[in-house]
Amino acid sequence: MREPVELRRQRILAVVQSRGAVRVTDLAAELNVSVVTVRRDVEELARAGKLRRGHGVARSAVPVEESSAPDEPPADGDTVALVVPERHSYLFETLHGARPVLEEAGLRIALHIAPQVPGAERPLVERALAGGARGLLIAPRWRSAAAEEADYGWLSGLGVPTVLMERRPRRGSALHALDSVCSDHWYGIHLAVDHLVSLGHRRIVLAARNDSPTARAIRAAFADIAAGRPEIEDWAITLSSPDAVPELGGPGPYAAVGPANSSSSSMTSAGGGAASSGGTGASADGAHTQGAPAPDGGRTVPAHGSGTSPGEATASAAENTHVDLAGLLRERGATAALLHGDVDALMLVQHLMDSGVKVPQDCSVVAYDDVVAALGSTPLTAVAPPKAAIGRAAAELLLYRLTRPHAAGAEPARRIELLPELKVRGSALPIPVTADSRSGLSV
What we know:
With 443 residues, this protein is α/β, with parallel strands linked by helices. Helix content is 34%, strand content 19%. Residues 5-60 form the HTH deoR-type domain.
C-alpha cells in the first residue's frame, strides 16, 4: 500500500526535527523510498518554512542554539533513546510532545526507527544503551500477542528507567509493573458509538486493523460496547485491510458479528474471542485472552459472505480477498461504519463511493486515529487520541524517574491513561425519521 504524501512528509519532518540535520540519502533509506522522492518532499517542506535545505541535507528550522542535534556529540548521560516502529505516523506525533520536555531538561532524544520485522526493537535498544542512553521511551510494534509476550523478558530487565508509550502490557505479565502512558481506547470507542447512536444509527460496522495492541484494544472495546448498548440492533467487526493481520498464516477479512447474523435466538452478542478475528482476544484495556469463546453463541463469519468457516482462514485468503465493506454494510443493513486507522479509512470511503455508497448520505462514517482524517475529499469525523500529550506525559514520567535514581523500586509504577476526544466534521448524519429509516442499505 503506497503511503500518502502528507504522511511521509510528516515523518520526514519528525526525523529532521529530532536530529537537527539528516542526509537526504539516509532519509530515503529509512523511509524506504527513492532519493528523488525525499528530495522533492524536502523542497516542499523547505518552501513551506518547516525545515531548511542544504546540499544533500535537510536541517531543522529550529535555530542552531535550540537544535536537538548539537555539532559536538553529547556528553555521556545526556541522551535518552526513543524507539518507534517505521511507517507509523501516529506514533511519530508523540515525538512532538516528548521532545520539548526532554530538551528543556538538557537531554537529547536519540530517535531509533524499528523496521517491520519481528524482534527489531531489541538490538536498537541494546545499541542505544551501549552508547550511554540514560533512559528509554518505547512503543514496540507488537503485531501479535505472541510477539508482545516474546519481548516481556528483555524489556523488564533493562536496568534503566523505561516508559512504554501507547502500550498496555497484559495484566500479571513481567511488564505489568513497568511505567506506561497510553490512550483510553475504550473511551474513544465509546465516544464514537455514542455519537452514532445519538444520530439514530442502530446498525453499525467496525472495520479495524488487527496487527497492533491498539487495534486489538479497539476491536475488543467495540464488541463490549456494542453488545452492551440496548439501542444497537446489529453490529459486526471486519478487517479494514486484508493485510492488517498479525502475521502470515493469520485469518482473512472475517467479521465478528452481533445478533442479526445468527439463526439461533440465543445469540445476543459477540465478545472478546470473536472480536479478535483469529483466536487471540483482547480486553478493552489491552489484556489478552487466548481463544476465548464469544458469549451467548457469538461467532465469526467471513465478511465477504462466502460461508467459509473461521478455521479455514489462510494467509492466501488475506492476500487475495479485498475487504468488501459495501457488501457487508448491505448484508447487515448497516447505516454507519467506524473505521480504524486513518489511511485505511480514507481508502475504504473511496471504496464505498466506487461501490455506489455515498458518505455520509448513505452511510455515516467515524474514523479512529485522526492523523489525516480531515484531509480526505470528505473530511471525516474522527476519534483523536491525545498523541502529543501521550509523548509529553511519557517524557515527564521518564524525566521524573531520571531525576530520582535512588528512589528506583521505592515508588509504585505508574500506568497512566489519557482520554481521546471526538472531532466532529460532518461525515456522520442523523437518520431521517421515516418508516424505513431502520432498514439500512438495501441489498
